[in-house]
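Tip: read the tokens left to right.
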């Protein structure tokens, strides 16, 4: 993973348009061991946020959900609060 902040706003596009943070930063793989990135996509009840709330494209949302589920089974993330 690169050292840059992946959650910064994208200044090239208008305010109303959201771009996938993984597409704009060219992430090849979403790792289940990268907990700060995974926690960003969980709500207060530890449920996975929908892709239309987070602005992630559908392809990366599926990879993200798979990584979160793997992290839960490896006991890196809790299932509930």
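Filled-in amino acids:
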């Amino acid at each position: 993973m690169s050292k840059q902040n992946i959650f910064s706003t994208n200044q090239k596009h208008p305010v109303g348009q959201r771009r996938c943070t993984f597409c704009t930063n060219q992430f090849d793989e979403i790792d289940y061991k990268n907990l700060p990135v995974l926690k960003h996509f969980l709500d207060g009840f530890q449920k996975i946020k929908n892709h239309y709330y987070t602005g992630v494209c559908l392809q990366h949302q599926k990879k993200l959900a798979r990584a979160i589920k793997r992290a839960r089974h490896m006991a890196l993330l809790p299932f509930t609060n």
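The mean pLDDT is 83. The helical segments are 21-24, 35-40, 51-54, 58-73.
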